[in-house]
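PROTEIN SPECIFICATION:
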Amino acid sequence: MVIRKHKNCPGRYSLFRAVFFIILIFVASCASIQENSSGHPDFSFFQDKPFTEETASWLNEGTQSRITPAIAQEASQINGSNRRERLYKAVDYVWKNFNFNNWYSDKAFALTADELFRTRNLGGCSDFALVSVVLFRSAGIPSRLVITANVDWMQAFQKNDLLITTGHTFVEAYLEEKWHLIDPTNRLLFEGYDETQRSYPNMEYLCLRGTDYWDMGVTGISDLNSVLRKEAGSFKTEKYKRPEYKQISLKNIK
């Protein structure tokens, strides 16, 4: 199946279907990736290092992110000489084999990975991240989901609590010898990532991290609404420190 062009694909989730998603436009920087003569990344420059038992625990599935035999069969198509190459190919696989469908946005956080793989419809960044994290783990890449709240929204919410909650979902993936930040929706990898910091690119602020959304106690939009509103209520602007990560496109693969 060829994926439809994601001209309207959201970089952020919205709590009501009536609100249109806004595409986040990023300028990709590939300075830290070596390329061969064909313009593709040369993955031979990257060497996987063994990971600890704690890191290996992020290969484990959750109730929502269970790796079914059907998903495992699909993941077997994703190969590569190291974790980074497999991650690139997994992101590419999602974009080629799934469709963005805004009509599914009201089901955000409520569907299992298995249901998303069977329908092939992704309603927003939360769905993109969930199917991606399952493929990453299937490909031997320790991975975890991250939910953020948008700083601009939190500041505005403190003045008007009727505003619709907005944020984003990222994936943390263990490549080479450390964690990297991945934005599957926009096909981006951020080098220099510091997982101990709560400030994320594009004015996003860490709220939750876990195996899957259900593991974090988020089973639907109403749960997310409660979590992000609580975070916004105590948020102080000085908490956010804009990170300076190198932004790398995950689009340029063979």
